[in-house]
Amino acid sequence: MKKISDLKINDTAIVKKIVALEPVKGRLQSMGLVKGAKVKVLEHTLAKQTWDIISGNTKIALREEEARGVLIDRINENA
Amino acid sequence: MLKTIKVAIVGQPNVGKSSLINAISNAKLHVGNFSGVTVEKKEVFLKTDLYDIDMTDLPGIYSLNAYTPEEQVAKNFLINEDFDIILNVVDANTLSRNLIFSLQLMDMHKKMILVVNMVDEIESKGGKIDKDALESLLGIPVILTSAKEHKGVDEISTQIIKLKKEDKKANKIYYDERVEQRIEKLAKTLQKSPHFRDDDYARFIAIRLLDRDEQVYKIIHDLPIFIEVHSMLEKMYKNLELEFDEDSTTDILSNERAAIAYNLQMEALNLKDEDEGMSEKIDNILIHPILGLPIFLFFMWALFQLTFELGNIPMNFIGEMFTQTQNFLADFLPKGMFNSLLTDGVLPAVGAVVMFLPNILILFFGLNLLEQTGYMSRAAYLMDGFMKRFGLQGKAFVPLVSGFGCTVPAYMAARTLKNPKDRIITMLVLGFMSCGARLPIYVLIIAAFFANHNPGNVLFAIYIGGAILGLIVAKILRTVLFKGEPEPFVMEMPPYRFPSSKALFMDLWIKTKMFLKKAGTFIAFASMIVWFLSAYPKNDMITQNFQTKIEQAKSSKAKAALKNELNAKLLENSYLGSVGKFIEPVFAPLGFDWRMSVSVVAGLAAKEVVVSTMGTLYAVGGESGASKGLISKIRENVDFKAAVALLLIIMIYSPCLAAMSTFYAEIPQWAWRVFYTIYPNVVAWIFAYSAYKIL
């Protein structure tokens, strides 16, 4: 399954599952990254080490390691 | 005697809770600490005709599955403290995410009010929040507010009183039938214990247990029903996870709440999907993969230029004011010990410190501005990749930058780092970020030795140099003392907002008050001691000896030279001279005279004291004790190499006593405390020595 870290800038996707240990998982969920939530990649740094995504009006910064833990289905509107 | 209503104000971070509290009319704000921890506790007291309303503002908390120490404080308050009403503040812009937490709160089955804040932002986008729909769906009172436009804010107290009088219980949240069955069964079992007789409380504990809340689990762990509850729970976890095909019951409940919250938002929020918001447009530039970092560094550079250039203007004025007062009092007051204490000891010292108030205020103002506009979290995003290389994480950037203001709050800001290793490394190198109180010393030395080399650039180099050293030390600490990956990095980036000028200036006012208080009390007291040590014991032999020489001297120039020599001799033979002589061997390899040595050691009490001590030591008996005079005195008495060594010592060695005690309070392990107390001073000495030898 694809992960957030596989996406490109401006890609949109639906969250399928969060694979992370607590408390990271809980933190991601409380920021709105739950099953079924829509996310969009807004930006990532040059080396793709840090990602900026938006979900339901909340912008979240996360590292590649955490972005790999958010499994998604791409629904690319900009392809 | 009025009845008191106790209210807990709860909300996720960045929902505008603080501005909301500031906007409540006729309220008295009290700022303190939660007992036992250094988390800020704000209380709001409101008097009405019938009731006293006592509201406690809890730290921002994302969910009851607490993550940071601040969240833990909020959770402990909710679970353990006695209060009547929960005032849950949510941000209208991120309604559904906020409501997930509201649903967790509603599990507590307490009287609750939902405050939907920042409705003005929704309305300006042409949207609308349906208050009635939210009220009927949630079954609790809802208030729409805008702290910025002062809308709905005063409805809060009316609603609190109304709710207090009502004898109606809050609504329950009903989960999926399969979950509900388990909650009911578990609650029944819990009720066998006298601790959970209350239906609502038993239900709440049951839900928390299914949510795998470790803190609540510990509560039942020591109770006789534990064995029964434990085996029941294990079975429930297994079966529910199978039935829902999820990894954990936490996920099941979390998905349930998210679904309810999403539907609530669909019913209550009328807003078309927007295209690109203002914040995204700004972010396209400010966190641009290539442009982002240079822009950020430019902001930092501009801030330090402003601090130096703009701060210089009132500086001269304040210095002049103190010199005038000193001269006036020296003539006006009867000659003697008190006169000398005031005009040679206290006034020059306090004056030398107060002069730097403008610089410090500009720096703090800039840092606050970065924080409140939401840019600080962008800075953390930009810096994370870089910081990771030094064994730190992007979030550590915020305490590190705060360290440029004051090390004390910076140590506290390091609490947002959850991993203890990340936290301690960050705290150990925080002292290398030069705090505002060191600024006066830099400015003094730069003015004396680098006046012709663009002082702003030299200052910038000092600050950057300290930061780079800190990063290198962090990397060394990470490799030598700790191995393993740094803590995960997940951070909300709040939308850009215009900072509330009220909050900005309120904060500056508090800083000014604290700084002046420190100057007026602690520094004045310290300078009195330094003055006493420098003026006693009285040595009449030397004085008489020189007096005759001075009288015999022919030219006024010779007289002045002899006077200076007398003062130096007197100082050398004072208590302070002896202390300086005693510690001189330590600093002698750095080219320091005893006066510099004493000043540096005094700086361990507070960095402001370095300048004030120099003020006293170099200016005693001089024509003017003010800092402008001090600059030329230092230029005459200190050579360039020693001045650079002094700069390095100040940059690197231990921060002030207040900061050190904060570190001790935050870090309980003695090994770390000892290490923290010794190593910066050793590093500082080595750097200063090398510089002195090489130059």
Mean pLDDT of chain B: 84
Q: Could you tell me the number of beta strands of chain A?
A: 6
Largest interface: A-B, 37 and 45 residues
**CATH structural architecture of chain A:** Roll
Fourth-tier CATH superfamily name of chain A: Ferrous iron transport protein A (FeoA)
Radius of gyration of chain A, taken over Cα atoms and rounded to an integer in Å = 11 Å
Strand order of the largest sheet of chain B: 2-3-4-1-5-6-8
Can you summarize the main beta sheet of chain B?
7 strands, mixed
Low-confidence stretches of chain A: none
| Assembly type | heterodimer
Number of alpha- plus pi-helical segments of chain A: 2
**What class do helices, strands and sheet pairing of chain A give?**
mainly beta
Structural class of chain B: alpha/beta
Tally of structural domains of chain A: 1
Tell me the span between the first and last alpha carbons of chain B.
74 Å
Query: Helical proportion of chain B?
Result: 55-70%
Instruction: Return residue spans of chain B where pLDDT drops below 50 for at least 5 consecutive residues.
Output: 621-626
Strand order of the largest sheet of chain A: 1-6-2-3-4-5
CATH class assignment of chain A: Mainly Beta
Set down the secondary structure blueprint.
The complex is a heterodimer of chains A (79) and B (695).
Chain A: E1 2-3, E2 12-18, H1 24-30, E3 38-44, E4 50-55, E5 58-63, H2 64-67, E6 70-74
Chain B: E1 3-11, H1 17-23, E2 28-33, E3 40-47, E4 51-57, H2 69-80, E5 85-91, H3 95-106, E6 111-117, H4 119-124, E7 128-129, H5 131-138, E8 142-144, H6 155-165, H7 177-190, H8 199-210, H9 214-221, H10 226-244, H11 249-268, E9 269-270, H12 278-286, H13 292-332, H14 337-354, H15 357-373, H16 375-389, H17 397-405, H18 407-413, H19 420-430, H20 439-449, H21 455-480, E10 490-492, H22 501-535, H23 540-552, H24 556-572, H25 575-587, H26 594-602, H27 608-619, H28 627-637, H29 640-652, H30 657-666, H31 670-694
Parallel strand pairs in B: 1-4, 1-5, 5-6, 6-8
Antiparallel strand pairs in B: 2-3, 3-4, 7-9
Helix pairs in contact in B: 3-11, 7-8, 7-10, 13-14, 13-15, 13-21, 14-22, 14-27, 15-17, 15-22, 17-18, 18-30, 19-21, 20-21, 20-28, 20-29, 22-27, 23-24, 25-26, 26-27, 27-28, 29-31
